[in-house]
Amino acid sequence: MSEHYTSPRDQDASAELGERIRQADAAGSPLRIVGGDTRGFYGRTVEGTPLSLDAHRGITHYDPVELIVSARAGTPLEELEAALDAQGQMLGCEPPRFGAASTVGGMVATGLSGPRRPWSGAVRDFVLGTRVIDRAGRELRFGGEVMKNVAGYDLSRLMVGAQGTLGVVSEVSMKVLPKPAASASLHLDMPLGKALDRLTEWGRQPLPITAATYLEGALHLRLEGGASSVAATRERLGGDELKDSFWQALRDLRLPFFAGDTRPLWRLSLPNHTPPLSLEGDTLFDWGGAQRWVKTDADAEEVRAAASRYGGHATCLGASDAQGRPQGAAEPFTPLAPVIAKYHRRLKAKLDPNGIFNPGRLYGDF
Does the predicted model carry a pTM greater than 0.70? Predict the structure, then answer.
């Protein structure tokens, strides 16, 4: 049954946000869009007047039967996930939080997904529709039950990972998933080569694996699904029990691997079955090897060339502070090919001609 969900702190600040954005566009004054600011390290530094979405929060619609939820951008992820958990459901993309203040808007803006991503999908795969405040201060609806976007773009999907450079996402509607009936996590000691071979072999079989990470000489697996399937697979694979908290720590970059290191932290996205790269430093293999966290003093050109050689790309999160939190980098993202950059600029010029939305967050000139 469909229902209107009332959040503990339900607030609609779209009118106020729209007016501030309209004034900023008229004055050509850049805005730095802020939610919980737990993902500030991901992307380039923005110089602009802060536009906080903290007062624009609340779960506006939740239909557990249809597996659909809608929430305003300033809604804390903890609040949304608690509401889903009460109905035995979850966000399938397992988005990282990076702190208690993490918001739905930050999840969409960065598009980052957790350990379950290769088996269930990315943030973009679960977004059904969005409300976006444009430069004129209008709250527009895209996706879901609304009419086709006249600009010819699927703006709901484009907003995922755009880092707020195309407009202010004020609300998002998403598909959710039932929580698995059973779960077990395993720690299997084995060399890296054997672990990668095993993952390739198991990938061809209907095993209930939903996370696979290699770290410090051991393969870490999460099994989820029906109780009998999880139990049988656990018995077959063997290994030692692993605490489920490992996956939350990995999701939020809180494992000891990420703590207190002066070397820059890189996130490499690579095709499945890519062999180990010839980079000096330490590597954590996530997503069965498709996502790799690398701590290295190698220069950016070398790291990006290593990833590109296999059809992947590399993002620099910078060195960590005393608490182990990444601090960002001057040029975090792989430079775009000229043809792709041309389309990015055209899209930015169409939606934000005065350059007020998070200017330079992704790349220096747009």
Answer: yes
The tokens describing 298, both together, are 């190698």
Parallel/antiparallel/unpaired status of strands 49-52 and 31-34? parallel
Q: What is the pLDDT along the chain (366 residues), one digit of tens a residue?
A: 345 555 556 899 999 999 999 999 999 999 999 999 999 999 999 999 999 999 999 999 999 999 999 999 999 999 999 999 999 999 999 999 999 999 999 999 999 999 999 999 999 999 999 999 999 999 999 876 433 444 445 788 899 999 999 999 999 999 999 999 999 999 999 999 999 999 999 999 999 999 999 999 999 999 999 999 999 999 999 999 999 999 999 999 999 999 878 899 999 999 988 999 999 999 999 999 999 999 999 999 999 999 999 999 999 999 877 666 788 888 999 999 999 999 999 999 999 999 999 999 999 877
Length of the chain measured in residues: 366
All structural domains of the chain, each given as residue ranges with its CATH number in brackets, are 14-178 (3.30.465.10), 181-332 (no CATH)
Could you write out the DSSP letters of every residue in 10-34?
Answer: -B--HHHHHHHHHHHHHHT--EEEE
